[in-house]
Design a protein that fits this description.
Elements (H helix, E strand, L loop, with lengths): L2 E3 L10 E7 L2 E6 L2 E6 L3 H13 L2 E9 L6 E6 L7 E7 L1 H20 L10 H21 L5 E5 L6 H8 L4 E5 L7 H4 L5 H8 L4 E4 L2 H15 L2 E3 L4 E3 L4 E6 L6 H9 L1 H14 L3 E8 L6 H14 L7 E8 L6 H21 L7 E4 L5 H10 L2 E4 L8 H10 L5 E4 L13 E2 L5 H13 L2 H17 L2 H22 L4 H15 L5
Parallel strand pairs: 2-5, 2-8, 5-7, 8-9, 9-10, 10-13, 14-15, 14-17, 15-16, 17-18, 18-19
Antiparallel strand pairs: 1-6, 3-4, 6-7, 11-12, 12-13
Helix pairs in contact: 2-3, 3-4, 6-7, 8-13, 9-12, 10-11, 10-14, 13-15, 16-17
The protein binds GDP-alpha-D-glucose (GDG).
């Protein structure tokens, strides 16, 4: 049920406001009213459990357009019982094309994932990025009060912390960076790198998934902006404030995945998937359709495997779930054509007695269907060419934790640092990947279980709760340090107390 409200009013008591480019829902006005579709992305999977639990606010673009003057759409609570609210921001169509598709998806995204040749550097998209970041700042200032903690998400909004602090000096702003941060020699290619990083240096805390991204960011700040850093303590002495930087890899709500996996309907669905597919082995890949995820490379490894190990032809099925993503960007449209051509080629060559080796789904599944697919699979192949973390790997482990499922993981996914029990395979090398798939399928049961229980331990220990608590600890230690340094300056102390009260309430997810 939908409840729409007038735009959110500033909070006087101090709470948490998350700000991201896209939010949990995409809105589209149709002849029959507003169509609301849940968004599929790692950021949404990570932030939604947090915001629900702490009854915060989420400010983001809902995919709808407004005029130059319109900034805020309406705020929305999806259920009457929801105690968190989503505040929609409106962009103009040129802003969506230049800021989002241009600067974010066709410049920053490929650059941070080491696809330099795909990055397009255009002054007009940078100007649009600045304009939209200012627009977000205006919206955030309208919907938050001075005691609110503002938690910005990802690379779309790097200038926002600076714009906010200019209007509200000493604002409690932090940011979580969801994608890789490249080494300074790559980031410096961005013609606007200095302004970009200086915007980020208005944050109290910046979180990344791995120590190597933290190191890359520290070195980039020093080399590009000339600031002093303390690499051991993760500190940057910026022009406006001391910025703390740390590695806090996102965890998942594994209990929720386990719960869904034990629902009788989901178990039945998983059994149905297996019997429909037939054969002996089901292997799965689940990704947004993105060139960083290594889908063509994975398919080519499967093709190589079927060629080299013909005995598996009628035994093995590879299921690729590819969720449509960024379909307005040319590189994503040509990726789709490439993938569909490879799928067609493999199935044309290796279908035997009506056994189809590759099942390909170009659509999002419901959460229950997704879990049923994980449950049905003997193996998940998570082999991005580069990935900030990768939540799919953790979700597969959560669903298969009591079984002998096998996880194959790319060393280029941030999650590889934590998930050491996975079989590793270089996605650029089809032979290695195919060999690891065979090794996983032929591995003895004891070894499979040993690896899976090591993986499950890591997913459970460093889960969404652990992540959220760790983030709050960083905020709290910052607020304490600022309080000490400024002799309990009024503004800083109030952020400290907002976080303190969240921690005191023992907010667990
Ligand atoms: C970015 C970074 C980082 C996928 N298919 C369906 C579906 N999903 C959900 C998965 C998972 C999420 O989407 C994908 O998360 P990832 O982490 O794999 O990837 P990105 O979207 O690229 O996320 C990434 C993440 O942010 C968090 O910081 O890990 O490195 O690139 O949760 O379950 N969900 C549903 N149907 C599908 O068909 N319902």
């Amino acid at each position: 049920m939908l409840d729409f409200f007038e735009p959110l009013k500033p909070n006087t008591k101090g709470g948490l406001t998350v700000v991201s480019n896209r939010g949990p829902y995409t809105f589209r006005k149709t002849a029959r009213g507003m169509q609301v579709t849940p968004s599929v992305s790692g950021l949404v999977s990570a932030i939604q459990p947090v915001i629900k639990q702490i009854h915060g606010k989420w400010v983001a673009w809902g995919g709808r357009y407004g005029s130059e003057e319109e900034i805020l759409g309406r705020s929305i609570a999806l259920q009457k019982t929801d105690k968190w609210l989503f505040q929609e921001i409106l962009l103009t169509e040129p802003e969506a094309a230049e800021y989002y598709e241009g600067m974010c998806n066709s410049c920053l995204w490929p650059l941070c994932h080491n696809f330099i040749e795909k990055s397009v550097f255009e002054e007009k998209t940078w100007q649009s990025y600045r304009r939209v970041n200012r627009k977000f700042a205006e919206a955030v200032l309208k919907t938050t009060g001075p005691d609110d903690m503002i938690w910005v998400q990802d690379f779309h909004l790097a200038l926002l912390p600076g714009y906010l602090c200019r209007q509200r000096p000493g604002a409690g702003v932090s940011l979580f960076w969801h994608i890789p941060f490249p080494p300074p020699e790559i980031f410096a290619i961005l013609p606007w790198a200095e302004e970009f990083i200086k915007g980020l240096l208005n944050c109290e805390f910046i979180g990344f998934h791995t120590e190597s991204y933290v190191r890359n960011f520290l070195l980039s700040a020093r080399e590009i902006c000339g600031v002093t850093i303390d690499a051991t303590r993760g500190l940057i002495f910026g022009p406006e404030r001391t910025v703390r930087v740390g590695a806090v890899p996102i965890g998942i709500d594994w209990r929720e995945f386990e719960k869904i996996a034990s629902q009788p309907g989901v178990v039945r669905k998983a059994a149905g998937i297996r019997s429909d597919i037939g054969g002996e082995y089901v292997i799965i890949g689940v990704d947004r359709m993105d060139y960083t995820k290594g889908i063509p490379e994975r398919l080519m490894a499967i093709e190589y495997l079927l060629e080299q190990w013909p005995d598996y032809k009628e035994k093995l099925t590879f299921v690729q779930v590819a969720v449509p993503s960024r379909t307005d960007v040319a590189a994503y449209r040509s990726l789709r054509r490439q993938i569909e051509e490879i799928v067609g080629r493999i199935n044309g060559k290796y279908t035997e007695n009506f056994h189809v080796p590759v099942r390909y789904l170009f659509k999002p599944l419901s959460r229950e269907d997704l879990v049923a697919h994980y449950l049905a699979a003997d193996m998940a192949v998570v082999t991005p060419l580069k990935d900030g973390l990768n939540l799919v790997a953790k979700e597969y482990v959560a669903v298969k934790s009591d079984t002998d499922g096998v996880l194959i993981l790319s060393p280029f996914a941030g999650a590889a640092v934590q998930l050491t029990g996975a079989l590793k395979a270089n996605p650029y090398d089809p032979r290695e990947l195919a060999n690891q798939v065979i090794a996983g399928l032929e591995m003895d049961e004891t070894e499979k279980k040993r690896r899976m229980s090591a993986l499950a331990r890591s997913v459970r220990e460093q889960d969404i709760n652990w992540w959220w608590q760790s983030i709050q600890q960083y905020w709290l230690s910052n607020a304490e340090a600022a309080g000490e340094a400024a002799g309990e300056a009024a503004g800083e102390a109030s952020h400290g107390s907002a976080i303190g009260s969240m921690l005191n309430q023992g907010i667990m997810l």
